[in-house]
Design brief:
The protein is an alpha/beta fold. The chain is built from 9 helices and 6 strands. It has helices at about 40-50, 65-75, 95-100, 110-115, 120-125, 130-140, 145-155, 195-200, 200-210; strands spanning about 5, 25-30, 60, 80-85, 165-170, 185-190.
Length: about 210
């Protein structure tokens, strides 16, 4: 059975994949490591890569994890990268996220807002009671310092070239990273930013096809 490495979204953990059917592979979930002071997204991605012993691994990244996986792909063109609800380059960011680099209000967000699931239900596209509960549990465990570092690293990511070894799955109803701004290889109609949670059947089937 093929090993597949999974990188979750910003501040999340393997619970982001808990509703997927990953019986088609040996799923290995990569743990976050402590970022260095003012570390770039690219450098952090390369340090995460050291957790993967295979020379030519399959890596699936969601959201922030997809950006890190894309950075790995650029450094190693023989990797097989699949990203979900993510960006392959800084050119795919909406303008309001680009503004964050110049007006970094996220640095002063109180922990209460960061950990509040209700604050993010709409933008992440979760509606079901169980989905909201899962998102709330994930957000409650976020390390605010890691979150703020990651946002800063994302906003200062300058990559403009798209690696050829990246396959991109994106939802047409993603409010955080709008579908119209990305060049996705596979679209999920009505899919939101948390498709791994609210569209697990479609995502699982597509991942199985791409991996095998």
């Amino acid at each position: 059975m093929k090993k597949v490495y999974f990188l979750s979204g910003l501040g999340a953990d393997k619970r982001a994949f808990s509703l997927l059917d990953l019986s088609f592979c040996e799923a290995i979930f990569i743990d976050w490591i402590r970022p260095q002071e003012k570390e770039s997204l690219e450098n952090y991605a390369l340090r995460l890569r050291r957790q993967i012993p295979e020379e030519h691994p399959v890596v699936v990244g969601v959201s922030f994890g997809g950006m890190l996986a894309s950075a790995m792909a650029k450094a190693d063109p023989l990797m097989n990268i699949i990203i979900i609800a993510s960006n392959k380059s800084s050119l795919e960011f909406p303008f309001y996220l680009r503004l964050g680099k110049y007006f970094p209000v996220y640095r002063w967000l109180p922990e209460k807002i960061i950990r509040s699931g209700r604050s993010f239900n709409w933008v992440f596209g979760v509606k079901d009671k169980e989905q909201k509960k899962l998102l709330a549990e994930i957000l409650a465990d976020i390390d605010p310092s890691f979150l703020k570092w990651a946002i800063d690293a994302i906003l200062h990511w300058k990559e403009k070239n798209v690696p050829a070894n990246v396959k991109h799955i994106h939802g047409t109803a993603d409010k955080l990273l709008p579908y119209r701004l990305v060049k996705a290889d596979y679209e999920i109609k009505g899919g939101t930013h948390l498709m791994s949670i609210n569209r697990p059947g479609e995502i699982s089937s597509l991942l199985q096809r791409l991996v095998q």
